[in-house]
Structures
1.
Amino acid sequence: MKYSNRLFLLFGIALWTGSVQAQSNGSLQSAVSLDLLGQFGEPFESQGGKVEPREAEIILFAPVDSLWDGFLNLAAHQEQGQAYFEIHEAYLSSSRWLPHSQVRIGQYFLQVGRLNQFHRHDWPFISAPMVQRSFFDNEGANDSGVEWSFLFPTDHYLNLTIGITSGWRFGHSHSLGEKPNVPTTYARLSSYSDLWSNGGTQYGLNTLIREDASGNQTTLLGADLTAKWRSGRTLDWLIQGEIWAKSFSTPSSSEWSLGSYLFTQYGVSQQVHLGLRLESLGNLSLKDAFGTPLANTEYAIVPTLTYKYSEFSTFRAAYSMVFERDPGEKFQPRQFLELQSTFIIGAHPAHDF
Amino acid sequence: MILNLIPVKRALFLSLSLWLGSITLHPYVSKAAVRAVGSTPDIAWLMKEVGGAEIEVQSLLKGTEDPHYADAVPDFIRKVAHADIVCAVGLELEVGWLPRVLSRSGNSKIQSGGLGFCEVGVGVKTLERPTGNIDRSMGDVHPLGNPHFWLSPVSMKEAAVVVADKLSKIDPAHSQHYQANLRKLHSHLDQLVHDSKRVLAPILKKNPASKVLEYHREFTYLFQLYGIPTIGSIEEKPGVPPSAGRLLQVARQAQSSDVKLIIGTDFTPLKPLEKVSEVSGIPIWTTPISLQPSKGIVDYLNFHRTLVKGLADRLASN
């Protein structure tokens, strides 16, 4: 389908949902989000030097019946100069089926780690950290399957999410992928504690095991932490970080990689936020011919300025300083600037913690 | 000696079972018939007054937050997961976070539209209900009217009716008890209004032209109930921080309109208030607008009396 036809289809669906919403007195909720991105310098993606839509999403959700809620997320995005229109998420969800449980069935972003749980336009920074890009994808791990979240009936918040997905695809893909030998399985155990002065922190332990069609096995182990301090309308402080270890084994070899990021953001006011992201990614198993470990860890520093005019529109600028290197060699720094504008129209966006 | 008689593995298994059993059953061990959650401390207080000994109430917010801008904090999800009834202010005040809290709780009883969910705002005669086409170019407008009704005891009476009806439905065995508590609460709130009017009336009579200015329309119901003249809010559009031009304009308007007091909440951004005060010379007063159990503000009747007295004192001295 031509891009113009796809956009026409997208536009048609948007109009249709608007009219359905009006007719059904709001039981079908819809939202449209647009993410405009400009990259200048030497960015990772090949669309540098211009500002254009990175992604447009149409999100529809409503109760299907007395048990299920339906959720559909249609996305159009640019990739390597090509335009794609696809279904990002399409699933049934229920909080009314099993006690203390939320169940999702269908295609969705896997609830492991922190960033995977949010659409990219809801992140507190513009682009994915190196560890996310390398271990998951530019946006997140997406697949079809079943996911069950269980909230332990305890005095302290303790939530266990487990999921099993087909494993045909992992991360962003425009093809169906290949049938793996075993499905992908994942789990996340998370908790929450209040902190001083209107603060709180959520922390989780995560694991994901996957085997592709060729028998290559990936095991991911990770921990994430998010802490927020809010006063009135201002998010005073946000601290968000993840650390992931990845084991990748082929029938003949295996290696471990380690990556992490830490993002700290200070709220100058209700609308203006200053953030700084520090990140690293390295292969722990690289050795030279004599068996000596080869230094290969790469780093990045990303100061970010955010201006949120309202809950519905955000402007962001980030300056990335990336310290790359070939194994055992010196760092080769490269820098680039990113400008982003996102907005959402339609249903009120959720204030997730 | 006796420890040696119990095999270690069995002892460990027993301990683990007891621990798991205790954490699993703990939330269900409740003397009250109904486990209730209010979205704010004020709504939780209302529920406790109506429910009496038959209910056990928790609040999600602490009263120090702006209820528009709260997050779906995981601890809220835990509280709601064990509840038989959840009552919110409604009128879209908690639209950003409460639906997410409910859906993540895995509690079928308190989902929106369920028997255990209530929005007390549906029973309140709201003010500033917009008409015509409403969209976000008008700011964060609430289509069903201003949701900050809880500073008016009259509106709280209306909200209490919704709570009593809901409690009677989910716990019909104690319906008469709830209705009796409702009547008692109505009488206390009537007395509160009567007393408050006696405090404010002489001051308003002495300075009939004196007006007040608020930052966001959080005090509108209070002003309307006691006949306190106001020139509106510093915000031009609800939820949108005022521009420098707007601050200047509203400061001049306040100066020429005999405004005696600029009023904000304890979470209102101070800079805009200070700017208007600096230009106009009018003093600022910030006050809590919700019960704050962590600071010992736990009783709505006392809280309201303190609020009214604070307002009266400042109007009298300016």
2.
Amino acid sequence: MKSKIVIFVAIVMLIAIMGYMAWDLFLSAPPEAKNPWEYKLSDLKRVDSSIPNYIEMKPFKPEMEEVHGVDVDMSGTIYVVGKNRVEIFSRDGNLKNSFPISGIGTCITMRNQLIYVGILDHIELFNISGDRIKRWKRTAPGSVITSIAVNGNDVFLADAGNKMVYRYTAEGKLLNRIGQKDTVQNIPGFVIPSPYFDLAIGKDRTLWVVNPGRHSFEHYTMEGHLLNSWGSASNSTADFCGCCNPTNFTLLNDGSFVTSEKGIERIKIYSNEGVYRELVATPEMFAEGVKGLDLAVDPQGRILVLDPAKNQVRVFVRK
Amino acid sequence: MPTRRVFLQNLIRGGILAGLGLLTGSLVFRSRKGGTCRLNISCNVCSKNGSCTLVPAFETRQFVWQLDPSKCIQCGRCATECVRTPSAVKCVHVYAMCGYCDLCGGYFKPDTKTLNTGAENQLCPTSAIKRSFIEDPFFEYTIDENLCIGCGKCVKGCGAFGNGSLQLQIRHHLCDNCNECAIARKCPAGAFSRIPATSPYLLRGFGKQPLSGDKPGEPESF
């Protein structure tokens, strides 16, 4: 009896071993080949997730194919532009109004009851109801308008195609060009390797322009005299990464800079003197490879991030 | 004594042998004269003075293998799976897309402190990318195909931080154009396909614009 049990167990074990060998030979997936030249970008993007002092609130989704620009007015109303369309949202993200535009809207600014929309190589002005008031002439051959800022009667356009900032009157008359390379005035010239070129009006009514190829912010008078600049390049959180960053920025109510980057997708805040202060959103919060995270700050200090990968307006508030 | 039957058998054998000899001789003669190669393989074309040149495989075929840079995930298999050593897949620089950046994500390692050409700063494992100063702050990056192994490390860096002007492509003057491409078989992204030999390159951002430089030593141009 005992020997029968031993034989039975031995046969079962033999069958199990044969089964395993057959599976190993014919059915198991081959081990994943390791890439000896692997370039792990994830190592560069690793950040302690407890660091940010901001939390993300419920986002809202514009109903358009592509989103490219966002702005907020003094009442907290949010304006989003994208492919063939402008949408206007309440502070809570409820759609208030929308109207069509004739092309891909690259940037948007709302000032003095007028909506300024950059449509690739020119700008168009709309009223709140969406009626077109004016269409300005094309800025220059090869223009790609990526940002608009309004200061009183002055309208500033960032042209990534011609690597130039243009100052216009509110009526559309060109006053002067800003940022041309000038060794006498010590103006280095804008370096724009990819179509991300942003500007904003500072608290002291002067002009801040990002020079992405030099990883710096440049501070200009309205006439185009360079006052100062700041910024440095590296992959560390305190600097700007990659070939050309930051791609977008906006200013907080105290004059601090909120910046967004590509390559290592992150949102950061710098003091008004250019000293790194804190992280708002970490790379793992964004889809890999997302570029052109446009930014806006509402009167309550909420940071709005337009995410082209998710087609959402994402809202970040201080903890 | 051979019979009449044996004599006839030997006659037939001799006739067949002579026919085979004539056929072989005529084929050899045709190839020496430089006839049109109608086979789906690369073949020697010889001129009347006796010199022969090996025609690149892609010139004798209607379709060639190529990889689509928009599908490529830079897994490194192009460098390890090709039947040729080093691989026929090389990094190609689409200059029209390049930002000529000082801090090039395809050239420098991510932790580089000073932007110079020191080997310790270079991302490329074989130093196949040459960096040359143009004017402040622009630098040009050129690929030395003799050193490039097609690992795609620079392609990943350029795509993540730059404009994606560095792209992997099968260089047809190097490719054997195997019936079943060994890399295509292992490519996890399914980026390989056969495309018409008349437009043998698939460069992202530039559609089917041809890439010259298929003769060894000839510089790339668009």
